[in-house]
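Researcher: Excuse me, tokens okay?
***
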Amino acid sequence: MGCTGCTTCGTGTPNGCKSNGGCATGGCNRLNTYDWLSSMDVVDTDPFDIVEVSFKNGAHKGFYRNQDHTRSITGDDVVVETGTGLDVGRITLSGELVRLQMKKKKTSEKDVLHKIIRKANERDLERLAEARSLEMTTMVRARAIARNLKLDMKIGDVEYQGDKRKATFYYTADGRVDFRELIRHYAKEFRVKIEMRQIGARQESARIGGLGSCGRELCCSTWLTDFKSVTTAAARYQNLAINQSKLSGMCGRLKCCLNYELDTYLDALQQFPKNADKLQTEAGTAILVKTDIFKGLMYYAYQKDSGRGKLYTLEASRVKDIKAMNRKGEKPADLVSLQVIFEADSEEEVDMGFEDVTGVIELPEEKRSKKRRKNKKKPGNRGKGGNSTSRGSNNSQAQNKSSQDKGSNSSGKKGDDKGSQDNKKGDGKSRSRNRRRKGGRGRGNNNNNGKKGDGDKS
């Protein structure tokens, strides 16, 4: 991935590898090339005036004619002419290597029309940095406009030209999209010339970049340019489980690396017999469980064990012999005598300078304090028992409250009734009660008690 295209730095100089602008692994630029001829003191007898120029850290490249008055070499930032204005890029290849690159990409010299105008100055680089700073905000706004128009498309990347007169919008869509109305909105919003370019899911991941499941940068964003079709048959030939999540890459398609070793597997599979899923023996029918392609081994198990019994390892040549016997109507006794027996390595043990004490020294057992486990009620009983106890406590509390309320009400009523009786009758019963409350004094104090009771009542 390009350093200026990610968030690791803001100056274009990598912070991690400390090589100040270039890596031997090709991690500082997308689809980068190494011009090894330019670093050698070799005079080119047949100079080639076409150079390769890279734009936006290798996002796309083009071939331009290098005029003599520019005096630009590999690694220089140059200003080139395009059909819609000027752009700023960097020369990545020059000389005879460009001729080989053009042959690889099937480009003829007659197709190269644009030229390099001059080397880029500080003002050109400042305008280029301003254009790069506008790309993120433009992409966010462009996605919002496309969503408002309810278009089934996704804006993947935006690239401004060096003079900020043109913006290229890269988008992905499942089908054909009518974006005529969208271009009008973009031209009104951004006030630049708009170019819409449809790309695939793999090209989108190549432009964005990222890390694969292997831990390395994506192949499509570093060196892979031609995308070949990948099918699930490639995974089956390599005995890989058909797991969509593991076989898919960052783009959502099958990984391109499934084709890298496919030819090697196909060559190794030619040594194996065909239609060898079942072998007939006198002990029963053996079925194929798995194969080791590079070791040339096939693993069988008897059908009566449903493939879960003992596995018998056979070489591919032995399996061919058994298949030939089955065609003649003959059957071997069993697979025990035919299986491959792996002998243990009889190499002398290397003295590592220490002794293996496994099984010699026994450590004492740890004495662990036994913790009392609290009897936790089951969640099913919690709902029942807990509810019943809570209900019982609530009922008892309610009963106590009601009894207290009744007692207070009854005492209040009795007091009122007795007071009314004392006020009406004024007999000796109320006086005796007052006497008992005050300590149970003698009978001789009845008059005094009655007066005090009358005073209290008043």
Observations:
- The chain has a mean pLDDT of 76.
- Residues 1-30 form one domain.
- The longest strand covers residues 85-93.
- The CA atoms of residues 22 and 51 lie 20 Å apart.
